[in-house]
Amino acid sequence: MLSLLEYLQGYQDLEFVRWDNQEGIVEMASDVLPELLTYCLELKPRPTWLTHVVNDERQLGREFCVYLVLHFPSEDFSLTLVAKGIIDKFPTLALIFPALNWSEREAQDLFGLHAVGHPDPRSLVLHPGWPKGFHPLRKDYKVGDEDKDFKRAPLVFPEMHGDGIFQVSVGPIHAGIIEPGHFRFYAIGEPVLHLEAQLFYTHKGIEKLVEGRNIEDGLRIIERVCGVCALSHGLAYCEAVEKLAKVEVTRPVLLWRTILAELERTYNHVGDIGNMCAGVGYAVGNANGSQCKEALQRLNLKFFGHRFLRGVVVPGGVKSIPGAEDSQAILNQLIKLADDFEEWIPFLLEHDGFRQRAVTAGILKAENAIDLGVTGPAARGSGLPCDWRELHAHLLYPELKVKSVVEHDGDAWSRLMVRVHETRESFRLLNTLLREAMEAPTEKNQSDRPFSSHKMRPWEPAWGCVESPRGTDVVWLMLDEESNIYRCRVRSASYANWPAVPLTVPGNIVPDFPLINKSFELCYSCCDR
Amino acid sequence: MWSLLLRKLKTGRLTQKGEKSLAKQTSSNLPSSFRKSLQVRHLDCGSCNGCDWELTALSNSIYDLQHFGIDFVASPRHADLLMCTGPGSTQLLNAARETYEAMAKPKWVIAVGDCAINGGVFKGSYASSGGIGGTLPVDVEVPGCPPSPDDLIKALQGFMGK
Lengths: 529, 162
Hints:
The complex is a heterodimer of chains A (529) and B (162).
Chain A: H1 2-9, E1 15-19, E2 23-29, H2 33-42, E3 48-56, E4 64-72, E5 77-86, E6 89-91, H3 101-111, E7 114-116, E8 165-170, E9 182-188, E10 192-198, H4 206-209, H5 215-222, H6 230-245, H7 251-279, H8 283-304, E11 313-314, E12 317-318, H9 324-349, H10 352-358, H11 366-371, H12 377-380, H13 388-391, H14 397-400, H15 412-439, E13 462-468, E14 471-479, E15 485-491, H16 493-497, H17 501-504, H18 513-520, H19 525-528
Parallel strand pairs in A: 2-5, 6-7
Antiparallel strand pairs in A: 1-2, 3-4, 4-5, 8-9, 9-10, 11-12, 13-14, 14-15
Helix pairs in contact in A: 5-6, 7-8, 7-15, 7-18, 8-9, 9-15, 15-18
Chain B: H1 2-11, E1 38-44, H2 50-58, E2 70-72, E3 81-85, H3 93-102, E4 108-112, H4 113-118, E5 140-142, H5 149-160
Parallel strand pairs in B: 1-2, 1-3, 3-4, 4-5
């Protein structure tokens, strides 16, 4: 990244905290950041955003700081731009890079900072109804009784007038076993003109909750940010912790972490494929998808002790490494399920009714996906090769030579096909990995030393990043002197993708929304936290 | 069409059989007309979606909740029983209360999972209450993080005295 380095060195007041082959951290005043970001975004290939974190560092004498982590895929280089010394306002970046829109609105809510020039300064995470001046992520806020004072207050939506335009409001409680969110359709006849999504009903204040906790407690909570991406979140968190402790994990650990990540992807993908069929009322597809998911979840329970793979990954290792016999048993079952998958997937793909609903429904344009920093099957369905397994050398993925699965139409069908191909690919990867696991000598040398005895570097930012079934999950972490969590930011794939969903709906009819929504298959909980 | 039929014949019956020992229990507080069939509404009160997915799993071919006479309905107005997941996130509690009020009497509430019972790992946060019990009258608690589909079926059967 020489050209980038030279460009940055042209600035007077930048402070290079770190610069090596993989990672750079550069500090600056907040008014320089927009210019630097503009330059970075014009580089080819364009960098992707990993996370945007606001941190209250007043007790360190640095006021509020904004950390923006970008990743340059050509050289697998990540750059953290730090704007420090923010007292009460910072210039918005959302106009330059719309992906940061939500994140800056969140900073306004939770820190009480003002994003100057923000195009949509409505509150986001905190619904209207909280007491005035309630900014829970400021360090001087101690958890009190504010939730008792939460009042019912109307949500703010744009007005839309015209002949025959009407609004359909849906939620937050939906008909079915779904998470809560409010959708406001502006429709004229059947076709939708505009959609507003009001989320954050399940906001639980997790980022405040983990502050001051030790590493293990933190992991327990971070794994519960989301039910079905529990492993990805936990693994991303562990990667961040290991960076701060400068711990290298052994090859068997890497191997089993890769296996676990692929198992999570497989059980989610088959379930999501089935759920898309539920979105159009096609029972055969739904039944087969949910059967396959159940079989995989039972496998998780049998060999790893939890149907959602919670508590399996721990800092510095994995909880237990199955022996050769277990690996063989897992492999045998997976081969069966992979054969079964090939048997039932044609029922969906060759079903005209299903195909006609899914093709051209909910098109996400590539340029929108780029602007909004969309990730996961949603981005790959729109032609962006952004699989974190390919972009970043981690776990055993470089050896497996994973390539992003890409479809180009951006509709629900494309997102379905991305999942279908990725499921096949995951079965293939699992086959390779489990064969290695069978041949590897069983060693039980996960060091007996508890992880908390490692010296961790305080006040340093670290991120961990894992490709979950829904896209790239990023956990950003900073510890204090006692190795307790000072700030932990979870940017889940759903958080990155939700702003894109309303854009894909206009032009479709209202009854297509369940299908479009299910083709993205985003969680509400890990978006709302 | 033929391939579908062939597959159906090959797979056969997938639904696992319930445990017979439960059939003898009769200690249910439910009025007798509710003991054979219950209509259930799921209510997410800020859960991490783990419990929700286990509730979804109840309707798959393996657990097939409907063969116990239990079904998930789309509206609280059709429901006898509310299954609540999650610790009760502040911004959702008004909607949760209204959902309960919309149900016809008699009505019951099950708290599904550790969070719904006592807040679970989310206890002590600024935007979640310690369980759903502070907002709605809970009749049955099903512990677990998340409770497995088998646990849920057992709890429902126990509740109905089946």
